Amino acid sequence: MAELVRLQAVGKQYEAAGPPALDGVSVHIAAREAVAIMGPSGSGKSTLLHLIAGLDRPTAGTVEVAGVDLGGLSEKRLAVFRRAHIGIVFQFFHLLDDLTVRDNVLLPARLTGTPGRTARGRAEHLLDELGIATKADAYPARLSGGERQRVAIARALINRPELLLADEPTGAVDARTGAQVTQLLRDLNRDGQTLLLVTHDRALAESCATRVIELSDGRVTGERS
Ligand SMILES: Nc1ncnc2c1ncn2[C@@H]1O[C@H](COP(=O)(O)OP(=O)(O)O)[C@@H](O)[C@H]1O
Ligand SMILES: [Mg+2]
User: Fold this and answer.
1) 156 lines ligand 1 (CB under 6 A)
2) Residue minimizing CA distance to atom 20 of ligand 1
3) How many domains does the chain divide into?
4) CATH of the domain at 102
């Protein structure tokens, strides 16, 4: 199966002194997998996700996504690459408050220059599938946590990324909404979306992931299918 993510001996040292946030991490993810990264707070989960997203750079090792060595890209090319290939969902949604739901979802498509008609069609379809079509003209402040996370997922998917990353996507919503988000992510993976989740949430990991990687103090300490 095509390999989508390849981390080789990745290290990340934020500060010269002290232990590294990541140390010798090698992870391979094939297309259509759903991988969950689990581990205690501070174990390096978000750091790992940020490196794969090209939001930050490793201090050792290499990160390849879709066959591209991210270390070889300038900041500008990295941003272009990320918009085209990677969707990201954060714990606290990171929606823009002064844009409507529709315009939040459309933003990444506008940034990549997707023709307006195509983008609007995709946005309508996603909002519909995620059950928030009636909220298209609302502003994020008027939505519940679960609705906001669904908007964030729609925004992450608008450019049809090969890889969807999610950092604690159920971390800031109630249990019932968490279950809905879990179901949604599982359905996306069943339809072929490659997924990498970082989570504390065992229910999320167990129902979504085809593979779980355990991280502890910046190292991979276990892996199970
Ligand atoms: N921007 C940063 N600057 C300095 N240290 C950081 C930064 N981000 C994370 N760290 C440190 O790196 C370690 C791993 O953090 P993180 O990846 O956020 O862990 P997790 O997501 O598993 O809770 C922690 O010790 C954290 O304090
Ligand atoms: Mg984190």
Assistant:
1) no
2) 42
3) 1
4) 3.40.50.300
